[in-house]
């Protein structure tokens, strides 16, 4: 910069006249040019935040990525058609920055492709997260090229949807004190005995004093509907515990969970654990099953009767992709989208993520679970089959599997903005752990079976007692590890504070002055939570867009002295 120029972008200049025409001393910035601090580079701390399980996880991830992208994207001066534009960026630069950011983020991982990054930037342009240099957005098509874009002054963050919580469904268990229709009370064998301490001591070798009257109650047999409701209640209770949520109401409508599906998925299976359908018309067509077996067992295809040719395996693969691509609903169903997105927050804890997916997949309709088992098993075998020729010349086989089938496995009915990236993350985890995930969890199955056997036993009931004597004593607490305690303490305390901070930040009914005041009070009281939500000043500045203030022109007459009355001087005296 030549001598006498203005100080721009934080660059120190020598003294001289600025853009406003005034003489500026050395080191002073010209007031006619706004000063914008340089955009900080992408650092590991920017991508270290993990969005855990809970309601509205997709919306939280959307806002998280936007904040990181705005803070990490370098803004510079560019020229286009003999005109200069300040604080903008090229489309290819945005793809580079966002691709690096997603790859280093724990919520997505390094398997995010450049093509997926371009699709996300198209959604950014559609939702006015970015705009072109002429202010156009929504209908413009984003391409990986040299077109110029910029950030709009308004906040692009999404408010959390006010979704009504699902009503809690009360599971009614059989009332053992009620008799069957047409059966009198005399037919139930009840024996009342009053025992003193001497009799009790002879029987049990301990004197405990007077014992109240008791009776034996012969329980009825459980119906199939009772067993199915027990399976549903204990399965959902276990899923809630694994996810670490206080309730499943905001991530799952329990009324849509079919108890019959859970029992069929648990018991109607073959030796490999694949579901056996009662209605064969809902199964995959024979020609699709033959095509899937052909690629899964390549080159030994037992069902193959037609001669092969060059490129035969690619045609077979395309046939399978076309069949699954025309399905109207994904295999994990629209109703369970939120619960599977919630499970993605546990991928850092491998054992918990596997168990959560095991239980969640039990909720699927049997035909969906069978198709998912066969499809994921084929995808995993193709990915690790070294004898199978490449199915694409430009994409690795594993990446091709994820791109081809992720949308038919998981997607949202409302076209969520991050559903493609979330589906790719889930499908990759399914392929790596499909043998564990797609099997029935043995611990859950054994605990439910023991409970069913327990409630069918003959019970001893004492006078005035509401509970059965044979029921095990309630367990109020159990010992956990130090790491688990620290995790529960951190998540249990921070989640309500994060929700409160988010409510203050997204509240559009309060004025900017009141919002700044409340945010300052929150920052003073909970600095760690505030820093996690707003890691840089740029992320905080998104909430308060800058308003261009133009000063009125200085009139020349305003600089003159006010009018003064005429005074006679000596020269006018006679």
Write the layout of secondary structure elements.
Layout: E1 16-17, E2 23-24, H1 57-72, E3 76-79, E4 84-90, H2 91-104, H3 114-126, E5 131-132, E6 148-150, E7 193-195, H4 197-204, E8 211-217, H5 224-243, H6 259-267, H7 286-296, H8 312-325, H9 337-343, H10 350-362, H11 366-384, H12 397-409, H13 419-432, H14 434-437, H15 442-455, E9 459-462, H16 482-506, H17 512-525, H18 527-533, H19 537-541, H20 556-559
Helix pairs in contact: 1-2, 2-3, 5-6, 5-10, 7-8, 7-11, 11-12, 11-13, 12-13, 17-18
Structure description:
This protein is mostly helical. It contains 20 helices and 9 strands. The strands form 3 sheets. The chain has a 4-stranded antiparallel beta sheet. A 3-stranded antiparallel beta sheet has the order 7-8-9. This is DEP domain-containing protein 1B. Keywords: GTPase activation. InterPro entries: DEP_dom, Rho_GTPase_activation_prot, RhoGAP_dom, WH-like_DNA-bd_sf, WH_DNA-bd_sf. GO terms for molecular function: GTPase activator activity.
């Amino acid at each position: 910069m030549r001598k006498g120029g203005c100080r721009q972008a934080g660059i120190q200049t020598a003294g001289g006249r600025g853009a406003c025409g005034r003489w500026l001393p050395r080191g002073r910035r010209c007031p006619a040019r706004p000063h914008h601090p340089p955009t900080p580079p992408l650092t590991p701390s920017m991508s270290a935040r993990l969005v855990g399980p809970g309601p509205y996880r997709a919306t939280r991830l959307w806002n998280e990525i936007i904040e990181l992208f705005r803070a990490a994207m370098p803004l510079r001066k560019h020229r286009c058609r003999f005109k200069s534009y300040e604080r903008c960026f090229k489309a290819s630069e945005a793809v580079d920055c966002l691709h690096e950011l997603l790859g280093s983020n724990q919520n997505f991982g390094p398997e995010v492709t450049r093509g997926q990054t371009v699709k996300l930037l198209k959604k950014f342009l559609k939702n006015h997260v970015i705009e072109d240099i002429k202010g156009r957005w929504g209908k413009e098509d984003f391409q990986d090229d040299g077109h110029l874009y910029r950030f709009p002054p308004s906040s692009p963050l999404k408010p959390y949807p006010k979704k009504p919580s699902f009503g809690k469904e009360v599971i009614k268990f059989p009332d053992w004190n009620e008799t069957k229709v047409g059966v009198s009370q005399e037919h139930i064998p009840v024996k009342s005995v009053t025992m003193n301490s001497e009799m009790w001591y002879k029987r049990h070798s301990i004197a405990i004093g007077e014992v109240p009257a008791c009776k034996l109650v012969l329980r009825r047999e459980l119906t199939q509907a009772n067993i199915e409701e027990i399976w549903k209640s204990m399965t959902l209770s276990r899923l809630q515990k694994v996810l670490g949520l206080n309730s499943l109401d905001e991530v799952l409508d329990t009324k849509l969970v079919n108890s019959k599906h859970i029992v069929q998925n648990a018991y109607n299976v073959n030796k490999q654990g694949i579901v056996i359908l009662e209605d064969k018309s809902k199964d995959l067509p024979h020609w699709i099953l033959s095509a899937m077996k052909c690629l899964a067992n390549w080159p030994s295809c037992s069902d193959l009767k037609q001669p092969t040719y060059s490129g035969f395996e690619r045609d077979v693969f395309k046939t399978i992709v076309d069949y699954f691509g025309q399905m109207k609903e994904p295999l994990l169903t629209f109703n369970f989208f939120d619960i599977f997105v919630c499970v993605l927050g546990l991928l850092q804890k491998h054992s918990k993520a596997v168990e959560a997916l095991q239980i969640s997949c039990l909720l699927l309709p049997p035909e969906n679970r069978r198709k998912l088992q066969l499809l994921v098993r084929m995808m995993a075998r193709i990915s690790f089959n070294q004898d199978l020729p490449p199915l694409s010349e430009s994409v690795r086989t594993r990446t091709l599997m994820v791109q081809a089938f992720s949308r038919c496995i998981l997607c949202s009915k409302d076209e969520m903005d991050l559903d493609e990236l979330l589906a790719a993350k889930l499908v990759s985890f399914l392929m790596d752990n499909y043998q564990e995930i797609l099997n029935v969890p043995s611990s859950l199955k054994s605990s439910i079976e023991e409970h069913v056997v327990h409630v069918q036993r003959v019970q001893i009931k004492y006078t005035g007692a509401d509970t059965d004597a044979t029921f095990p004593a309630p367990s109020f607490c159990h010992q956990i590890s130090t790491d688990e305690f620290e995790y529960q303490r951190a998540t249990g305390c921070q989640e309500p504070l994060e929700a409160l901070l988010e409510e203050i930040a997204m509240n559009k009914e309060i004025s900017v002055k009141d919002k700044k005041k409340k945010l300052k009070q929150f920052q003073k009281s909970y600095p760690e939570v505030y820093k996690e939500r707003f890691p840089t000043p740029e992320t905080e500045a998104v909430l308060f867009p800058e308003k261009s203030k133009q000063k009125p022109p200085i009139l020349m007459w305003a600089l003159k002295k006010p009018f003064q009355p005429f005074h006679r001087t000596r020269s006018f005296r006679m």
